[in-house]
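re: ur question from yesterday

yeah so i grabbed the chain u mentioned. its 559 aa long if i counted rite. heres the sequnce exactly as i have it in my notes:
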Amino acid sequence: MGSYTTKTMNKKLLILIMARKGSDNVISRQNLRLVNNKPLLYYIVKTALKFKKADVLVSTDSEEISELALLYGAKYIERPKFLTKNSTSVKEICLDTLEKLEKENIHYEKCLVLHPKIPLIKISTINTFFKNLEKNEPTVFGISSVVDFKLAYEVENSKKLLKLNPSKKSLGILNRIVAFNTKQFIKNNGNFVSPFYGLKLSNDETHSLNSYHDFGTFEQILNRKKILVRIDSTVKIGMGHVFNMLTILNHFRNDEIMILMHKKRNLGYKQFKKNLYNVSFFTSDDEFNKILTKFKPDIIFNDILNTTKSYMKKLHNHSKMIINFEDQGEGRKLANLVFNPIFEKQKSLSHEFYGSKYACVRDEFRIWKNEILSKNVQKILISFGGTDQNNITEKTISIIEKNDIKNVEFILLLGFGYLHKKMIKQKIKYLQKNNFNIILVDGSDFIAKYTRDIDFAIVSNGRTVFELASMNIPILAISVNSREQNHNFVEEQNVGIKIDYEKSLYQKSLENSLEKMLNFNNRKNYKKNLTKIDLLNGINIVVDKINHEYNLLNTFDNQ
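ran it thru and got these structure tokens back, copy pasting raw so excuse formatting
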């Protein structure tokens, strides 16, 4: 018996959902357990019904599950008791179902078997299963993962330990999802027809519910936010935005995140890839809007410097919550939150937050400290960010050469996007031969390694100063552009010296500043002031404000 009829079941494709009451070795009543106030069955049925080309049928031995299937818009077919054992195979249930349907003159060309315990399968994946069957591939299994033959072993039963024999081939891990040609299946006496093929499912789709913890993880996935990160990074802008956003996103690891960059402003995208984020690119406004429409973000992060009102209005068509970073444009007035740690402002809007209190220090700087305070300076770090468009690195090294400073070790740290590597490497090689103590580091993900034992640092006056300050390192900050000239943290907190870069005056300014930084009493005073500043809590403040604002918006929406 069941709820199927020739009038209600008249498509050529069938999605068959396996949903028995329960078993001895899985969670009791797992298909009926509430997740986000909906039974588990709800999620796979609703996904299946969104695929309009197929009829959806639930195979079950439960009256409650039968009624829920009808409630959610599917049909059900009663499964006989002898097919509800743990040892019952998928193909046995499929054959029983298809034979019953054929007796009622209901015929299908293709069938896809799904399970409530694998609830995150996508509609696009369902479509791909059926598409592959159209290519005369008789049987396609869902694959959770592929194990390389070097890591795969054939297992033999043993009383104490499992006996393992090396495998000669890579292995595909099946997950009881299978699509097949129904006529061939029935003709083959209820056996799947070879050759067999496998469709690799995404990480989310393979999330299987086999324990109470798995249900908790599934609920987290359902509740996660969709965050779109719109970020620019170029030679002119630098890489600071990239590292700042990586730090912030590390606190939203349970959420679904998309990084969106313009193809011509995508410097640093590999850093996101290395951290396992999905990165997309666009070239036009139309393409940008299509990506937003498809992704449907709950929150949009903007780290693209100044925004306009027209741009922000367009974004509000796609998301109720927009957060801007380092934005002094008119568009910031339309954001829900604005964080400008580099700048200070006497009068700001209620949703704007200025100053070092909101600096987001990278994780590595939260671990290491610098306790160095020597009478005589022994080691200095030089670094001007990811790109150093004005090549202040070379100018600084040239001043060191002219002043014949050979009694100090210099650590020259080049950014990932530095444009003059060949030239600077040749220059450093020449200086090393002439007894200058300069060590060149060409891009590093572990900057704290080089800062934990320095006396002070010569760096660009951007976000880097917060990270060095968090390690209690005195700073000689060089403002390399107009934005950095407005960054007064080093001066206001009296933790070093700030100079604005001017080509004609740079040599004299740097020489005077170096003399002051080499003075022990000055550095001792800077070090003392640094210990009074708490920069490590900034990321927590920012994240808390974002989550609080998001929860407030959701509360209002649900009232």
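noticed a couple things. Residues 369-530 form a domain with the Rossmann fold fold (CATH 3.40.50.2000). also The chain has 20 helices and 24 strands.
anyway ttyl
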